[in-house]
Each structure stands twice: as structure tokens, then as C-alpha cells.
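Re: that backbone. C-alpha cells:
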């Protein structure tokens, strides 16, 4: 994900493969990178665009926290949201930040 986030535009499997292997002593197999990216796309962590000759991928969240929050909300639904609100109510500063964020959207 760090390679995807580091690129401002969408990336191909080959681009991620090349960037990862430039940083590693033991190179990864192309098919390993492709499999991981396909799995991340199936989990909606990556968005896959196939309008060009090859698949291009982009992140659906800007950081790990965004991915984790989306997963928790999708897995636990209203219970997760209710717990988050309860935590915010217990912390006035957090509640103010949450209100500000809601007003921005």
C-alpha cells in the first residue's frame, strides 16, 4: 500500500512490482504482487480500472486508519458507529473535532 499511496496517480502491477523489488534484497515474484493487488481490489482496498490496456489500481483510502475504520464499520455496522459516538461523547475535545469534520463534509 505504501507504493500505491506514494504515487499520486494510479499504478500498474508492474510499477508496484518494480518499486518493491528496488527496495528488497530478495525479489518478489510478479505473480505474488499481482495476487496481493487482486485480493486488495476484491476487498475494496484498491479500486481497479480496466479501461486501458492493463489494469490500473488506486487506493480507496488515504491511510491504514481509513481502511481499518471502513472494515470495522462494514463488519460491525451500527454497533461500531454507536461505540465511536460513545467514545466521542466521553471526550469533549474529540466530540468537537468530530463535529468540525461533519460540518466540513
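Recovered sequence:
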Amino acid at each position: 500500500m505504501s507504493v500505491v499511496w506514494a504515487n499520486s496517480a494510479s499504478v500498474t502491477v508492474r510499477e508496484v512490482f518494480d518499486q518493491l523489488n528496488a527496495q528488497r534484497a530478495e525479489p518478489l515474484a510478479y505473480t505474488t504482487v499481482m495476487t496481493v493487488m487482486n485480493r486488495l481490489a476484491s476487498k475494496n482496498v484498491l479500486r481497479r480500472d480496466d479501461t486501458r490496456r492493463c489494469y490500473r489500481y488506486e487506493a480507496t483510502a488515504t491511510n491504514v486508519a481509513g481502511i481499518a475504520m471502513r472494515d470495522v464499520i462494514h463488519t460491525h455496522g451500527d454497533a461500531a458507529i454507536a461505540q465511536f459516538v460513545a467514545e466521542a461523547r466521553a471526550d469533549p475535545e474529540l466530540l468537537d473535532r468530530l463535529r468540525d469534520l461533519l460540518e466540513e463534509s
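The CA atoms of residues 32 and 93 lie 44 Å apart. The chain is about 65% helix and 10% strand.
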